[in-house]
Amino acid sequence: MQQDVLKELYESLIDPAQRHQLGEYYTPDWLADLMVREVVTDPLAQRVLDPACGSGTFLFHAVRYFLAAADEKGYDNAAALAECTRKVLGVDIHPVAALIARVTYLLALGPERLIGDRGSLAIPVYLGDSLQWNTEGFITGRDVVVRVPDGPRLHFPAAIVADVARFDEIVQRMLDYSERGAPASDLQSWLQREDIGDEWGRGRLADTYQHLCDLRAAGRDHIWGYVVRNQARPVWLSTNDQRADVIIGNPPWLAYRYMSRAMQRRFREESQRRNLWAGGNVATHQDLSAYFYACCAELYAKPGGTLAFVLPYATLHRKQYEGFRSGVFGEGDVVFARAAIRQAWTFDESVQPLFPVPSCVLIGRVGDSSALPKQVAAYTGTLPRRDATPEQAAQYLTHSIAPWPTGGKRTGGSAYRAKFRNGATLFPRMLCIVEEVSSVGVLGSAANAPIVRSRRTRQEKEPWKGLPSLQQQVEKQFVRPVYLGESVAPYRLLQPVDGIIPWDSDGKRLLDAQAAQQSGYPHLGAWLTEAERLWNTHGAGRMTFVEQLDYFGKLSVQFPAPSVRVICAASGTLPAAAVLSDNEAVLEHALYWAAVSKREAYYVTAILNSEAARSRVAAMQARGQWGARHFDKLMFELPIPLFNVNDPLHRKLAAAAARAAKIAANVPLKDNMYFVTARKHIRTALHDHGIAEEIEDLVTRLLAVLEGEAAAPSFRRKPESRGAP
């Protein structure tokens, strides 16, 4: 179809890196059609807005749905077109997207209607910022402020912006006058004749006109009339008489860690005001989609209106979305909006091609404060092609009713949850993870102060990726083994890396550059001086370099190091846990750890490495492009009891895990073998020896007793149906 060509054109014109920066993911026709038909219950009466319309997929189906209803009611062509352009509208922040969405809108109308009897036609797709971050003021209204790069601010008062016809007339008059080189007094006289006084912001308009004249004189005026008109449209759409009955679409999923510093600051502040900011350890996992949903409820939806958005699957249950799931966007006496989720559809990894990560559709009601639904419609199936038709989707996809994924505040589970800690945030790695260059030192000092340099990897990101490596001597006591997520296999530790860890064992403190020099560690002081300089130049700027290393105290808490620790990988397709007995080692953030006795350590690793435990938490895992990946502390949602040496089952598990560790230690692994391959070889050996099956049986018995299950697994087929839930 022609709209498919436009989508491909859109994706080819906006390269993947830029679409990633915008948090954009392409929505297939079958899903857009399904959503439109679910939430647009009265197409002739309801106003529909897609505030992040991209290439216009949702607009296409909403327009077609409206026109079919208009034909059924006997509308003539002119009336159908006029009413459609009042009822179905779109906004996008990217100019190419807005342009292509307008063409998509025309295709939805169809050539036979466009050449038929009709009046003038304005396609209601606007280039604008739906978040209205280009506005100022919240009490008296939203002034539109267009910031010209390396130039002035074009400021338009809220009272003018809200009257779209008058606003357009004023902007056009400004452009006409500036083209003629008319003085500001001419515009002032015209504003006075039109009865536009100070209450409309006449003085500010005069200042803006002068800025436009200055831009024209500098040869920079060619687009600002267009930009100003479009940037004002979101403000107009948020006025009470222009709000929509249905807000639908696929908002940007831009993660916090990929935002610019200025955007991070604005996003954090705005999210905090709306009770959406989780912060802490999950700050970098927050994204724009939940905030976008809340803003649309606040700015564009009528009371009782419907929100229907495609969102990341993680919004259903992950900690960073707790405020979002509450449906109350604000705190205390300041609540910007309420929008309770009324319905949810989920799409697992089998529903492909779809998005790079698992997703869901959430449908909410503005003004509603009801509790979350207890169930979701869970879709599965593989589609024949990327842009399957709605008919093909109905044929190839099935859905069943499933419980809402576990989310919200944690209750129950295991006491081990509180015992396990996250490793240190050793970032940026080029400033603290190193490799030894030479064993021959300067003036024979290498034994106590080896020469080290930054250990570089392909996973580095800018700006650190482009910086030169650090290289120099560092006192040996500050070069410690560091275990990464990739350093752990089932029941076995793989090779750690070296790290510069500025912990002063004598003073029991972390050292910065100045403290290192004053304490008599000149090499460490020199390394930290350069690391701190680079961090201050390129880092986030909210904390010092040493504060970054000790973020939330996750480094200093590892000293003095326990003699025995259980460590487990935070992520992976399958779990990996082992026993660590090196009290010089430091653990980074891709690991969790707990200090326990040796026997207890084996007991815990048996459970953490088991498929019996993994399968029970799989539905709660966050999912990425390659499926379920993150464990974090999810294993401790299970009622795993603390180790009891008097319990025979606990002793059997510890003994079996100790045997598994001996088997794993004897698996031959090549030097520098990829950790995923090493883990696979170890699991194969454990299976071949029969110990893996023995441990699975013991863990299944342990959990079955605690959960009140039958010891043998049972499989129940869920009822299935086709089509929309």
Key traits:
alpha+beta; globular; about 725 residues; disordered N terminus; 6-stranded mixed beta sheet; Rossmann fold; disordered C terminus; single chain
List the helices and strands and how they pair.
Layout: H1 2-13, H2 16-22, H3 29-39, E1 48-50, H4 57-73, H5 77-87, E2 88-92, H6 95-109, H7 111-114, E3 125-127, E4 135-136, E5 143-147, E6 153-156, H8 158-161, H9 164-180, H10 184-193, H11 202-217, H12 224-237, E7 244-249, H13 261-273, H14 288-299, E8 301-312, H15 322-326, E9 328-331, E10 334-347, E11 359-366, E12 375-380, H16 390-396, E13 398-403, H17 416-419, E14 421-422, E15 433-438, E16 451-454, E17 471-473, E18 479-483, E19 488-489, E20 492-493, E21 497-500, E22 503-504, E23 509-510, H18 513-518, H19 522-538, H20 545-549, E24 565-569, E25 577-580, E26 586-587, E27 591-595, H21 598-608, H22 611-617, E28 623-624, E29 627-628, H23 648-665, H24 675-689, H25 691-707, E30 721-722
Helix pairs in contact: 1-6, 3-4, 3-16, 4-5, 4-6, 9-11, 9-12, 10-11, 21-23, 23-25
- Largest sheet geometry: 11 strands, mixed
The beta-strand count equals: 30
Q: What portion of the residues fall into strands of 2 or more residues?
A: 15-25%
Summed over residues and divided by their number, the pLDDT gives a mean of: 84
Binned, the helix content reads: 25-40%
Overall number of structural domains = 3
How many helices?
A: 25
Query: Low-confidence segments, ≥5 residues, pLDDT <50?
Result: 1-24, 407-411, 440-444, 708-725
Shape summary: globular
Determine the N-to-C terminus distance.
27 Å
Radius of gyration: 30 Å
Helix/sheet category: alpha+beta
